Amino acid sequence: MRTTPLFTLLLTSPLPWAVIAGLLVGAAASRATMRTRGHRDPERAKTWKWVLVCIFLSLAVVFVLAGLFLPGPGKIFLPGPGKIFNMRLAYAGGAAAVLVFFALRFKKAVGIPVVVLILVSVSLFGLFFRSIRAFTGETEIATVRVISAESGGIRLELIPRGEEPVLLSMAGQYFAPVVKVVIFDDLFVFLGAKTWYRFDGMTSFALVKETDGDRFRQQNTDYYFPWPAGISETLWQVFEKNGNRIPGVKTVQVEMDLKRVDAEEFATYGIMVQNDGGVQIVAKKSP
Question: Number of helices and strands (H, E) in the chain?
Answer without folding.
Answer: 7, 11
